[in-house]
Each structure stands twice: as structure tokens, then as C-alpha cells.
Amino acid sequence: VQLVESGGGLVQTGGSLRLSCAPSGFSFDDFGIGWFREAPGKQREGVVCMKSRDGPLHYANAAQGRFTMSSENAENMVFLQMSSLAPNDTAVYYCAACRYDGGQWYGGYWGQGTQVTVSP
After folding, report:
1. pLDDT of amino acid 80
2. How far apart are CA 120 and CA 53, in angstroms?
3. What is the pLDDT of residue 28?
4. Any idea what the Cα angle at residue 24 is, between residues 104 and 117, rounded to 5°?
5. Cα angle vertex 8, ends 83, 37, to 5°?
6. Within a 13 Å sphere around the CA of 110, how many CA atoms are in the beta-carbon half?
């Protein structure tokens, strides 16, 4: 199983970025897939989890209204469109298998991560 993220970079406050994830050896027909992030000095946190392909999405409060997760079934890829970015969005973003259950985020099969840096 391999999940490869891309699309990170440096952006100014208020800007946008689109992250991509290409999973291989992993089908999100039956399993959740989503995004997590880890900011410097902080624990990894869930951003959004899609409960199987085209399934319902759960967004973290910090992502609600600004971030949008989508999938491209033909390419077996998922994306995270981020807008109105702020410096506290600076983190390494990971694509991973995920589950959100009872207020808890669960992740696995981590990609290598992609750095997102938002300048003031």
C-alpha cells in the first residue's frame, strides 16, 4: 500500500493550494481515505475523512468551509482544495486511510506527507 501526496508549497495568507493523493494497492471503495496534518510541535490531527468512495465527508472544525475534499474515480485520486489559508494551517499534510468514529480520528497507511507553509 502506498499513498503519495503532492501539491504542497509556500503560499501567502489568504491564498489557496490543491493537494493531490494517489493511492496504490489501496481501494477506497470500501475504506475511508482522507487528510491529516501535523504542525510543528503539535500532534497529528484529522482534517477530513471520506467514508469510502463518494461516501460522506467529515471535516474538522478548522477545515469546515475552507477546505474541500474530492475524488477523481477514473484516476483513483483524491484531492484537498484549501482556500483562505492562514499561518496556523502551516503543517505537513498527509493522505491516509481514515475513519472518523465517535469523535475520534483514526489513520493508517501514511503517505510521506507534503509541506504546506503559509506566510503572514
Report:
1. 98
2. 36
3. 75
4. 60
5. 75
6. 14
pLDDT per position as a tens digit, 57-77? 999 999 999 999 999 877 889
Query: How many angstroms separate the Cα of 5 from the Cα of each of 8, 17, 28, 34?
Result: 8, 13, 16, 11
**In the sheet where 2-6 sits, what is the strand order?**
2-6, 17-24, 77-82, 67-72
| Cβ count within 10 A of residue 113 | 19
Lookup result for grid cell 477545515 = 63
Range list of β-strands (E), the chain: 2-6, 9-12, 17-24, 32-38, 45-50, 57-59, 67-72, 77-82, 91-101, 104-108, 114-119
Task: From 118, 109, 120, select the one nearest 34 (Cα to Cα).
Answer: 109
